[in-house]
């Protein structure tokens, strides 16, 4: 089950907690990886712990030219892209009334527009191969909203609509496009929360705990597997019951 | 028939799974040969590879029939 031997996977945001766990899971299933992120050192570190079948291509997804160059560089390094995991994301939280155009635009650019551009670029190879897997990492707040995250929630909800539209277009070519939407996950980002903030969040989660990055990675691995070939346009929520949608 | 037309026809026949005799000069990919819009994108991709050329999107839109494709490629190679 879930054998990705011979498949080449591009994972963006691989230096982050969830991205790193996704990379590990896909690699353990046999995939050849291209790890992408803005900072080279943590990517190299991750690559070193994974061993063979791993390439590193740095890219700042806030830069349109870098986004254009990434899929080409990834395909050259690995010999193609069969699996794309759009995981990179940033937050620029602010109350709606105080949110600047720049905060809005930056979050949309990295979280939504770069995903669009990367999807578009990898489709050609996937259509020829009659096989492809795209998994976009959304967020529970894309479905529920969250105060202070108007930009982030808009981008994450946008990913869902984009994924469904693309899923329609390429389903007949053996390409699936899905979203995995994490709830609260233990990462560097949530480590910064104080006990009171954590307590308030945990009260909303029926599972009574935060999720782990590896639990997101397991959902991504499933959707990239040959076994999930009949699942497309779906959003898999991984949130401990926080939002049952 | 020119060599280019033969190669284009071969791609069309293979990609759309149609009989060779249906691929006439005025045959429309969508109306006569059963292509959907994604097929036409894939055909253009296949032409680009076969002939080592680049077909920009606005030009691709004008390629509606087998004859259009041959004419465009003859001008581009």
UniProtKB/TrEMBL annotation, chain A:
Reactions catalysed: a (3R)-hydroxyacyl-[ACP] + NADP(+) = a 3-oxoacyl-[ACP] + NADPH + H(+)
Subunit structure: Homotetramer.
GO BP: any one term: fatty acid elongation
UniProt: NADP(+) binding residues: 38, 87, 152-156, 185
Domain (Ketoreductase): residue spans on this chain: 7-183
The entry's keywords: Fatty acid biosynthesis, Fatty acid metabolism, Lipid biosynthesis, Lipid metabolism, NADP, Oxidoreductase
Active site: 152 (proton acceptor)
Family affiliation: Belongs to the short-chain dehydrogenases/reductases (SDR) family.
SMART domains membership: PKS_KR (SM00822)
Enzyme category, top tier: oxidoreductase
Pfam families: adh_short_C2
InterPro entries found in the cross-reference section: 3oxo_ACP_reduc, KR_dom, NAD(P)-bd_dom_sf, Sc_DH/Rdtase_CS, SDR, SDR_fam
Organism of derivation: Paracoccus halophilus
Domain of life of the native organism: Bacteria
This protein's name: 3-oxoacyl-[acyl-carrier-protein] reductase
Biological pathway: Lipid metabolism; fatty acid biosynthesis
PROSITE patterns in UniProt: ADH_SHORT
Molecular function via GO: 3-oxoacyl-[acyl-carrier-protein] reductase (NADPH) activity; NAD binding
E.C. numbers: 1.1.1.100
Function text: Catalyzes the NADPH-dependent reduction of beta-ketoacyl-ACP substrates to beta-hydroxyacyl-ACP products, the first reductive step in the elongation cycle of fatty acid biosynthesis.
From TrEMBL, chain B:
Ranges where the Carrier domain occurs: 2-77
One annotated GO biological process: lipid A biosynthetic process
Listed GO MF terms: acyl binding; acyl carrier activity; phosphopantetheine binding
UniProt keywords, alphabetically: Cytoplasm, Fatty acid biosynthesis, Fatty acid metabolism, Lipid biosynthesis, Lipid metabolism, Phosphopantetheine, Phosphoprotein
One matching Pfam family: PP-binding
Positions carrying O-(pantetheine 4'-phosphoryl)serine: 37
GO cellular component, one term: cytosol
PTM characteristics: 4'-phosphopantetheine is transferred from CoA to a specific serine of apo-ACP by acpS. 4'-phosphopantetheine is transferred from CoA to a specific serine of apo-ACP by AcpS. This modification is essential for activity because fatty acids are bound in thioester linkage to the sulfhydryl of the prosthetic group.
Location relative to the cell: Cytoplasm
Pathway(s) served: Glycolipid biosynthesis; KDO(2)-lipid A biosynthesis; Lipid metabolism; fatty acid biosynthesis
PANTHER family (UniProt xref): ACYL CARRIER PROTEIN, CARRIER DOMAIN-CONTAINING PROTEIN
Family matches, as NCBIfam families: acyl_carrier, PRK00982.1-2, PRK00982.1-3, PRK00982.1-4, PRK00982.1-5
HAMAP family associated with the record: Acyl_carrier
Function in brief: Carrier of the growing fatty acid chain in fatty acid biosynthesis.
Similarity comment text for this entry: Belongs to the acyl carrier protein (ACP) family.
Protein name according to UniProt: Acyl carrier protein
Gene: acpP
């Amino acid at each position: 089950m879930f054998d990705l031997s011979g498949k080449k996977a591009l994972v963006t945001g691989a230096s982050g907690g969830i991205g790193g766990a996704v990379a590990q899971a896909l690699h353990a299933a046999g995939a050849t990886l291209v790890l992408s992120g803005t900072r080279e050192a943590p990517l190299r570190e991750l690559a070193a712990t994974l061993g063979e079948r791993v390439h590193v291509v740095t890219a700042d997804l806030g830069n349109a030219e870098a986004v254009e160059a990434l899929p080409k560089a990834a395909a050259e390094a690995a010999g193609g892209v069969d699996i794309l995991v759009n995981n990179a994301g940033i937050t620029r939280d602010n109350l709606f009334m105080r949110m600047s155009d720049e905060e809005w635009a930056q979050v949309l650019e990295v979280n939504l527009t770069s995903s669009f551009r990367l999807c578009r670029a990898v489709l050609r190879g996937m259509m020829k191969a009659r096989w492809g897997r795209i998994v976009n990492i959304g967020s529970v707040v894309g479905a529920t909203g969250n105060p202070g995250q108007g930009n982030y929630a808009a981008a994450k909800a946008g990913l869902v609509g984009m994924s469904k539209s693309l899923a329609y277009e390429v389903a007949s070519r053996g390409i699936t496009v899905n979203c995995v939407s994490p709830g609260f996950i233990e990462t560097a980002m949530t480590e910064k929360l104080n006990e009171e903030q954590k307590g308030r969040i945990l009260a909303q989660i029926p599972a009574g705990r935060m999720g782990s990055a590896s639990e997101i990675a397991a959902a991504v691995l499933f959707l990239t597997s040959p076994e999930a070939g009949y699942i497309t346009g779906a959003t898999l929520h991984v949130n401990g019951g926080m939002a049952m949608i | 028939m020119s060599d280019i037309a033969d190669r284009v026809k071969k791609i069309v026949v293979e990609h759309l799974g149609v009989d060779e005799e249906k691929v006439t000069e005025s045959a429309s990919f969508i109306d006569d040969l059963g292509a959907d819009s994604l097929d036409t994108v894939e055909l253009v991709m296949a032409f680009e590879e076969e002939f080592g050329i680049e077909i920009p999107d606005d030009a691709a839109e004008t390629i509606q029939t087998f004859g259009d494709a041959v004419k465009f490629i003859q001008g581009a190679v």
